[in-house]
Amino acid sequence: MSDWHRDWPAPAKINLFLHVVGRRADGYHLLQTVFRFLDPADLCDTLRFAPRDDAAIVLATPLPGVPAESDLTVRAALALRAASGVVRGATIALEKHLPLGGGLGGGSSDAATTLLALNHLWQCGLSSAELQRIGLALGADVPVFVHGRATFAEGVGEQFADVTPAPAWYLVLVPPVAVPTLEIFRAPELRRDTPAIAPADWRDGFGGNDLEPVACRLYPDVARHLDWLRALGVPARMSGSGACCFAEFPDEAGARAASASLPANMRGFVARGLDVHPLTMD
Question: Which of 45, 71, 141, 210 is an active site residue?
């Protein structure tokens, strides 16, 4: 029973680049990106699970304004039961630290950790590939957290070619806005024709984030935070669809020195890049 009483981390991700290379007939955007995790020792969400005598899935810590049945952790637990045929209950407690609407994948990471944890705790026996398929129905970023490796992703985010980025530390800024992903992807001015590359051609520092111009126009706070980071003279970009922005440093000292100079009206944190998810199944 000890595993029922442990903490299960749900780390953040950043997108080292993010290009929109096309659009399918069904409206889904075709992307290319490199996902990298942030060390959960620096910042992450934490989940805890408790067994139940009934088959209920109970969220002990609902997020304000989010009905329990819409919460990704509850949906993940129900989807795992439907796919595995294992009918057991659990109470889920989520300690939330990653910002909502921040582009760090917090909700997707929470869902993936729920799949990984309950697959183990309920002894469902599903493989990583099976959990990834379940996760894709919950959200495009869920599979990468199950996959558990720094990776070049394409398609709608489900095709992976693992990569090894250079060791780095990041100063991540958290603008005081939540950016809805759908709003960014629906913007008519979003570029959708960036030339695709082969995964083997990716190198550190390649590319940009095609979603940045739209997010900066709609949310000036994102632009303000990016401008401050770029004034440091280091590589900086927005993660995902925003709002969080990050600058890359070769060592912890550089990242922490930059963090110490943050203006009083900006909030951020320092984290080490991590290439293997702490719960990886492989």
Answer: 141
Q: Which amino acid is at 144?
A: V
Each domain of the chain, given as residue ranges in start order, spans 2-162, 169-274
* Each residue's pLDDT tens digit, 168-219: 999 999 999 999 999 999 999 999 999 999 999 999 999 999 999 999 999 9
CATH of the structural domain 2-162, one choice from 3.30.450.40, 2.60.40.10, 3.30.365.10, 3.30.230.10: 3.30.230.10
- Which of 242, 245, 210 shows the shortest CA–CA distance to 225? 245
Determine whether 210 is an active site residue.
Answer: no
Q: Indicate the pTM of the whole model.
A: 0.96
Per residue in 92-106, pLDDT (tens digit) is 999 999 999 999 999
Mean pLDDT of 77-100: 96
Question: Mean pLDDT of all residues in the chain?
Answer: 95
Class of the domain covering 169-274: alpha beta
Catalytic residue list contains 141: yes
Which pLDDT score is estimated for 282? 61
Burial class (CB in 10 A: 0-12, 13-18, 19+), 123: exposed
Catalytic residue among 13, 39, 110, 210: 13
Quickly list DSSP for 2-56. Answer: GGGGS-EEEE-EEEEEEEEEEE-TTSPEEEEEEEEEE-TTTSEEEEEEEE-SSS-
Angular region, 244: left φ>0, alpha ψ -120 to 50, beta rest = beta
What pLDDT score does 1 carry? Answer: 42
